[in-house]
Amino acid sequence: MRFREIVVFDDIVAEARTWIGTPFRWQQSAKGQGCDCKGLIAGVARAIGRPEGSSIYAMMSAEYRRGVDPHLLMRGLSELFDRVETMEPGDVLLMQTGDKAQHLGIYVGGGRMIHTYGRGPRCVIEVPLIPNWPVVGIFRWRDNG
pTM of the entire structure? Predict the structure, then answer.
C-alpha cells in the first residue's frame, strides 16, 4: 500500500469517529444533526473531499426499502468502490439485515466498525463486528488522485 493510500484510509477512520453520537435520521447526512447508514458514508466522503459524497448511490432514495431489487446497493457500491476480499481500516462494509444487503458501516480495524441504525442507541456508534451484522461485501475507496 502506498503512503498516500494509508493517509486516505486514516482520514476516513478519523472522520468517521467525529460522527459518533450523531442521531439516527432516515435519509439525512449532517454530522451532529442526523444521518442514516448511507448518509454516514456520504458525509464522511464529503468531509474528506471524496466524489462519492455527492453520488446518487451514496444517498439512495427513500424507496430503497420498499420492494426495490435487493442487489441495488451492491451494484451502486461497485460503481464507486473496488470490491475486495479482506477488510482494512476505512473500508465500507455492506451487511445483510433481514433478507436484504442494505446496511453500511465503516471498518475501523481491530474487528470494529462505525455505523448507525434505526434500532438500539439510534446514533452513530463504534461497535465490534458481530454475527448479527453478516458482511456480504467489502468495498475499498478508489484512488481519486
Answer: 0.86
